[in-house]
Amino acid sequence: MAKKFPVKPKHPERICWGCDRYCSVDALKCGNGSLATMHPSELFGDDWETWVQEAQSSAQPAADPPPGAAGDSKPRG
Questions:
Q1: pLDDT at 65
Q2: What is the rounded (10 degree) CA torsion for 12, 14, 18, 22?
């Protein structure tokens, strides 16, 4: 089971956030790359969680696919 993601860590710059191991920046164990993955607060600011929630709440539902799109089971003829 995945660990609970820390929303507001004290020092996000000290940890790689690329997987559930949360390795120290100078001791990457998973091979996620040569650089540590940044925490969302480092990328988007301290209010990143509210920004994500607003984006999700304003998302429009997907429209119906056009006729003849992939997966259309109507016979052609």
A1: 64
A2: -100
Structural contact between residues 35 and 46, judged by C-beta atoms closer than 8 angstroms: no
pLDDT in tens, 31-43: 766 788 899 889 8
Q: Which pLDDT score is estimated for 31?
A: 73
Burial 43-68 (b: 16+ CB within 10 A, else e): eeeeebeeeeeeeeeeeeeeeeeeee
Q: Which amino acid is at 19?
A: C
Rg for the chain, CA atoms, rounded: 20
The SS3 of residue 54 is helix
**Residue 49 structure tokens:** 């969680």
- Tell the residue number behind the tokens 């259309």, with chain if given: 72
Amino acid present at 9: P
Q: Residues 21, 30: contact at Cβ < 8 Å? A: yes
